[in-house]
Design a protein that fits this description.
The structure holds two protein chains of two kinds. Chain A is mostly helical. Chain A has one domain. In chain A, 91% of the residues lie in helices and 0% in strands. Chain A has helices at 4-73, 81-149, 153-167. In chain A, helix 1 runs antiparallel to helix 2 and helix 2 runs antiparallel to helix 3. Chain A is rod-shaped. Chain B is an all-beta fold. In chain B, 2% of the residues lie in helices and 45% in strands. Chain B has three helices and 60 strands. Classes of the chains: A mainly alpha, B mainly beta.
Chain lengths: 169, 721
């Protein structure tokens, strides 16, 4: 006769193992969704990058126009050597900003792509992890059967068989 | 019916122009003005005093030009003559002679100076003299060298360049991107033999040195900086690309100027900013699109380097050279050396890097050098740059200032040229005064002042004319100075040296809008140079000596103007064979503050002496001059008829012999000994005279050979008609 406590342990371990296996599958689909979201965000950031670049380029042109406008008001020749140097310098500074922004966006995109890649990989192994977690429960269950063994080894064998068949999928 | 009026004159306005006197445009002018104010100074409180004579310092037998260098605790006189520099101490003692220099006689009147610490930079308004750098070593010796720009990588000079020397459609073709002995060609005449050794820049960026000039359009160069590449850019369609447009890669942001559209699927560009050749890779996602206003084709293949650089109109040439001329004006301003007044780049102002007088490589950082051009009128000719709290630029058609302040110092980014006045400036070098800058205007040769007003944070300048009522005294201005006092007197005087050797001397009262002029003439020759340091005025005079009917020579005498000297170029009377300075001139002998005689300086018994006068201890010789303070004519009395001046009261202070009208009045009282030629008296002389005249005024002064102390406080004329 199996003790009620042992039976409860075996039953709960069986439920837990089943839950772990199901959880693995659930985590995998969640990670797939997150990977998709990361991919979308990467696309969004890339779009932002393009927009920001357009804004920066416009700003560069605005600054050049503004430099010329201010210089006109200051009664200096727009095409003097210093005028050219200033225009070149302001453009360089604008391009530096543009490149800094671009680099920042590219870092974000790179991070998102890495995250996407990691999530996809995670999604692939999540079911296996569920099963591995389930194996712990099965071990607990097995120790329950050990208790039963002391009172009836035939049931233990059945449970082992059950566990083996469950592990095989 | 005889009308009699008394007219008092305080002389304080000095000599006015004849038309100004006759028109009487301002009330009360006649009571303060002179018809003639010759060889006097006007005093702050009214009245006129005999001008200082010259205390002889040194002579040269060639034309000199002087610059007074004020060091820390000492003053030295730098005397420039044809190719030679003489250094004198402030008492005229010769300290050093440096020969074989670059300046020539023609430069002397046109030299411009800028001093800083132990250096003096010198250039010539003729644009023919390379900037000279005079350096005073710690031991007090001077050295002279041609100014050199600092040398950078690959031997490049940190010098300014200019891109507007040639016609706008002139193009440059270079035979290779790099190397030596490369061909350089222009489509118009640009080159002269003197271009050898000079530098051009392809795309105003890549420097090359000319090693040989074949003709006006062809030369050989050594390329210092590899030329920016000319590239063929393959695109699907080049239909919308136009020559002259700037094309920019949308990924790389590399830019180039389109120089040709050789096929329907390629665009040819010269890169504008460097050597990076757009972004293209057969596998890359982000290949450049070539953006212009109307096109945006993607690169379809990698850019291809064109074998030889394409020709371009974007080039420049070193600004300063023997071919294009040297700066005609310079100034040391706020730790920058300012160069300007270029012969072929007339509207350009260059400033060195802050704190480095030798770096003129243009940049955009605050401390960088600048190379700026006047925007409002590119055809204007900058004549002078002057350093005050703000930099002042003076052109032939206006004056401008750069609105800098401690909060907004002069940098390449904040240069502005604000107009002060459309009055142009002549070639006469302006002079800095506590109020601003005095200058001679370009149109009518007027004496003007730019007065600094406002505050440092909100600077502004005013302009005023100083010579309006005495314009006739400016008979060809060539030098201008302002003395902050005169040999101990507290009045300030602006002195304009004229081409004819006269000086217009203007009393310049602080805070007053009234000025007064007198004219100075030299007793024997002509004034040729004038310098001041604080209240010390130094004059150089040119004396022509006649040796025979066909032989003459000139000598230049430099003297300090001092009231203790009665006559010009006064020196102790030494009857010695070696004292040949004033031989063959008409000279005067002074004793006890009065001229005691005149005569030709002749060789007598082996000694040069004033003819018929023997030398004696305490005597000196020099050149006496006329003094005249004829008051303004009383025009209300003359009308169309004649007048009488029966009485004249002349209020004199410590005055010797004086002539009033046709009569001479002596200073001796009944009890005075008659053997004191320098005797003076303070009195009110009453001169009574008969006769009629069309001029309601009277000569009051001294004539040459009768010089002595002279100080008239006021004059009262009684005029009858």
């Amino acid at each position: 006769m199996v003790e009620p406590v042992t039976m409860a342990l075996i039953a709960s371990s069986a439920v837990s193992a089943f839950g772990s296996i199901l959880g693995g599958f659930g985590q995998a689909s969640q990670m797939k969704a997150q990977a998709k979201a990361a991919a979308l965000e990467a696309k969004y950031v890339n779009l932002q990058r393009a927009q920001k670049k357009a804004i920066n380029l416009e700003a560069i042109n605005d600054v050049a126009a503004s430099v010329d406008l201010i210089r006109s008001g200051r009664n200096v020749n727009l095409n003097s050597a210093t005028g050219r140097a200033l225009r070149k310098d302001r453009r360089r500074r604008g391009l530096d900003n543009l490149n800094n922004d671009n680099l920042s966006f590219l870092q974000q995109i790179s991070g998102l792509k890495t995250r996407q890649s990691n999530l996809r990989a995670g999604a692939r192994v999540a079911p296996l992890m569920g099963i591995l977690n389930a194996s712990g429960d099965i071990a607990t269950m097995a120790s329950g059967f050990g208790q039963i063994g002391k009172s009836g080894a035939g049931e233990v064998d059945k449970i082992k068989q059950l566990g083996t068949s469950q592990l095989s999928f | 019916m005889v009308k009699t009026r008394k007219h008092k004159s305080t002389l304080e306005l000095g000599e006015l122009s004849r038309d100004f006197l006759m028109n009487q445009s301002e009330e009360g002018v006649l009571e303060r003005a002179c018809q003639t104010a010759l060889n006097v100074i006007l005093k702050a409180g009214g009245g006129a005093k005999r001008r200082p004579g010259g205390d002889f310092k040194f002579s040269t037998d060639v034309q000199p030009r002087r610059f007074r260098f004020r060091g820390r605790g000492f003053v030295e006189e730098l005397v420039f003559t044809n190719g030679v520099l003489f250094v004198h101490d402030e008492d005229g003692v010769l300290l050093q002679t440096i020969g074989s220099q670059a300046w020539v006689t023609a430069d002397l009147d046109n030299l411009r100076f800028g001093a800083n610490a132990n250096k003096v930079f010198v250039t010539s308004a003729l644009n023919t003299l390379p900037v000279q750098e005079l350096t005073r070593a710690a031991d007090g010796t001077w050295s002279v060298a041609a100014y050199q720009f600092s040398v950078g990588v690959n031997g490049k000079r940190s010098q300014p360049f200019y891109d507007k020397f040639d016609e706008i459609d002139t193009v440059m073709t270079v035979g290779a991107y790099s190397g030596t002995g490369v061909t350089l060609q222009f489509n118009q005449d640009v080159l002269v033999a003197g271009h050898v050794g000079l530098r051009f820049r392809y795309m105003a960026a890549n420097e090359m040195v000319i090693t040989a000039v074949t003709d006006a359009q062809n030369a050989t160069v050594d390329i210092v900086d590899t030329l920016y590449p000319t590239l063929d850019l393959p695109v699907a369609s080049s239909a919308n690309y136009k020559v002259g447009e700037v094309v920019e890669g949308d990924v790389s942001n590399v830019r180039g100027v389109i120089v040709e559209v050789p096929t329907g699927t390629s665009v040819r560009v010269i890169l504008l900013e460097g050597y990076e050749r757009f972004q293209y890779s057969a596998t890359a996602e982000d290949n450049d699109k070539l953006i212009t206003r109307e096109a945006g084709e993607a690169l379809t293949a990698a850019p291809v380097l064109v074998t030889t650089p394409f020709f371009t109109s974007i080039y420049d040439e070193q600004l300063i050279s023997a071919v294009r001329g040297y700066p005609g004006s310079l100034a040391v301003h706020k730790n920058r050396l300012i160069l300007s007044a270029f012969a072929e780049a007339t509207d350009v102002v260059c400033g060195s890097a802050n704190g480095n007088f030798y770096d003129f490589a243009v940049g955009a950082e605050d401390e960088n050098a600048f190379n700026e051009e006047l925007g409002a009128d590119p055809n204007s000719e900058i004549r002078h740059v002057a350093s005050k709290d703000q930099l002042v630029i003076m052109t032939d058609r206006g004056c401008h200032f750069v609105p800098e302040s401690p909060q907004s110092p002069l940098t390449p980014a904040n240069i502005a040229f604000y107009e002060i006045t459309p009055d142009g400036c002549s070639l006469v070098e302006p002079f800095s005064t506590p109020e601003g800058i005095v200058f001679i205007d370009n149109d009518a040769g007027r004496l003007m002042v730019l007065a600094q007003a406002g505050s440092l944070s909100q600077p502004s300048w005013d302009v005023a004319e100083l010579s309006e009522a005495a314009y006739h005294m400016l008979t060809g201005p060539k030098r201008l100075v302002v003395a902050n006092g005169l040999d101990g007197r507290t009045e300030r005087y602006a002195m304009v040296l004229n081409d004819d050797g006269t000086v217009a001397c203007m009393i310049y009262r602080r805070g007053s809008d009234k000025v007064g002029f007198s004219r100075w003439t030299h007793g024997e020759g002509a004034f040729s140079d004038i310098t001041v340091s604080e209240d010390r005025v130094f004059m150089t005079s040119k004396i022509d000596r006649v040796f025979s009917d066909i032989e003459t020579s000139s000598i230049w005498l430099t003297s300090e103007m001092k009231f203790s000297s009665l006559v010009d170029d006064e020196a102790p009377y030494v009857s010695a064979a070696s004292d040949t300075t004033i031989r063959n001139t008409l000279s005067d002998v002074v004793k006890d503050g009065a001229v005691i005689g005149s005569g030709d300086v002749v060789l007598e018994g082996g000694n040069w002496v004033v003819e018929d006068l023997s030398a004696a201890a305490g005597q000196s010789r020099g050149f006496d001059f006329d003094v005249d303070v004829t008051p303004a004519p009383q025009t209300s009395m003359t009308g169309s008829g004649r007048v009488r001046i029966p009485k004249t009261w002349v209020d004199v202070l410590d005055t010797g012999i004086i002539q009033i009208g046709n009569s001479e009045y002596l200073p001796w009282g009944p009890d005075d000994p008659l053997d004191d030629p320098g005797k003076t008296r303070t009195q009110r002389i009453v001169a009574t005279q008969l006769g009629w005249s069309y001029e309601a005024t009277k000569f009051i002064g001294q004539t040459r050979g009768r010089g002595g102390a002279f100080d008239v406080r006021s004059i009262l004329l009684e005029v009858s008609k």
